[in-house]
Amino acid sequence: MEVEIATIGGYEAVGRQMTAVRAGDDVVIFDMGLNLSKVLIHDNVETERMHSLDLIDMGAIPDDRVMSDLEGDVKAIVPTHGHLDHIGAISKLAHRYDAPIVATPFTIELVKQQIKGEEKFGVQNDLQKMEAGETMRIGDKNELEFVNVTHSIIDAINPVLHTPEGAVVYGLDKRMDHTPVIGDPIDMERFREIGREGNGVLCYIEDCTNAGKKGRTPSEAVARRHLRDVMESIQDYDGGIVATTFSSHIARVKSLVEFADDIGRQPVLLGRSMEKYSGTAERLNFVDFPEDLGMYGHRKSVDRTFKRIMNEGKENFLPIVTGHQGEPRAMLTRMGRGETPYELDEGDKVLFSARVIPEPTNEGQRYQSEKLLGMQGARIYDDIHVSGHLREEGHYEMLEALQPQNVIPAHQSLKGFAPYVDLAENLGYKVGRDLHVTRNGNMIQLTE
Ligand SMILES: [Zn+2]
């Protein structure tokens, strides 16, 4: 059987991930993501109303026109997890394929919300839930399997397409967490089995984000301990404490909520995306927040909550807000500019349970936000965080578990691929032979 990989997006920079695998007559698409920085750099761009081709030209969504060169039928569109760089283009591209969108329950719910917000296209694809550990037939000869992985968002999986020629394992995005705060540990046992059974692994596509960092990525339990340490150290402070993190990082939000209670403060989630992700996770029973936990997204209800906090005393609350990257319209940035009823005083604490995504726009915005907060007297606690991506030792472990015949580095620029290429070559892979460094819009023929 012919097996071919189309590297459509995310092979020149992080963002707009999309890869298609053709096995015989069947095609499966993994991820359809958005490169948000290409959108945010323009003022007032509303993607909801934009046409796909314009977004492709901006470099915001994958250029899927290469799909017409693949001779087969798309049988499934499979987003691996709910981050925007993996699902953000579904509302713009999925309607062009007569195939269901297959994902885990939390991811499906986020896809559903995105489709609802779409104003240009009617996306009618079936939404099909599949849990980690489950499988689904793809045509007569292939099978799709979800393997549980751990990442900075809940309900993440690595999909595996089992073909008669061997398995194609799509490895974006994960870290090897054996003590996650929510959900099951990464299923390394299953990866090792897949490496040994049948024809083994024909191809492994891997996220190279942290390949240049030595050692292994710490568990979410480590970030949780770090956070507890910071919060206990300031528990006697009788002024304002404000925290921010990735809204989609439900495990981190859960830790913040719990520790707020431990230090005698009432947690409250503020900002549109805080309300969206935490509300969704709670509705789907991924997390059990206290019944009276307030979540407010709309400007008016947020401002009303801030007024209540100021009236009842800042020392009784922990606002958990959006704005960890200094996004201009996010809550923390507005607080820094003095645009909310919440008043910061000399010595108030601001906790960034996140790291700056290393990209000039983020770095500039975050710098500005911290400066504005500092000018009002706020004290900054930053980097209370662990990454969601594998480091060097995790990459070695994956390659040793899967023993893939071919490896394709992904989710980075060429520069980002370099450290991964080095470590794969240490294990005997060779660029141009079985280690395929590629760009967006290419085809890699694995078997004939
Ligand atoms: Zn991700």
Brief summary:
This protein has 448 residues and is α/β, with parallel strands linked by helices. It is 31% helix and 22% strand. α6 (188-196) crosses α13 and α7 (220-233) runs parallel beside α8 (250-262).
Major sheet: arrangement of strands: 7-8-9-10-11-18
What's the overall geometry? globular
Radius of gyration: 22 Å
Q: Which sheet architecture does the biggest sheet show?
A: 6 strands, mixed
What does this structure look like?
The protein is α/β, with parallel strands linked by helices and 448 residues long. 31% of the residues lie in helices and 22% in strands. It contains 14 helices and 19 strands. It has helices at residues 36-40, 52-57, 84-87, 90-93, 105-117, 188-196, 220-233, 250-262, 272-283, 299-312, 331-336, 360-375, 392-402, 414-426; strands at 3-9, 18-23, 26-30, 73-78, 101-103, 127-129, 135-138, 142-148, 157-163, 166-171, 201-207, 241-245, 266-270, 294-296, 317-321, 349-353, 379-381, 406-410, 442-447. A six-stranded mixed β-sheet has the order 7-8-9-10-11-18, covered by helices on one side. The chain has a six-stranded parallel β-sheet with strand order 14-13-15-12-16-17, with helices on both faces. Strands 4-3-2-1-19 form a five-stranded mixed β-sheet, with no helix packed on it. A hairpin with a 2-residue loop joins β2 and β3. α6 (188-196) crosses α13. The longest helix is centred in the last third of the chain and has 16 residues, at 360-375. The radius of gyration is 22 Å and the shape is globular. The N and C termini lie close together (6 Å). The model has no long low-confidence stretch (mean pLDDT 96). It binds zinc ion (ZN). Zinc ion is lined by residues 81, 83, 151, 173, 388.
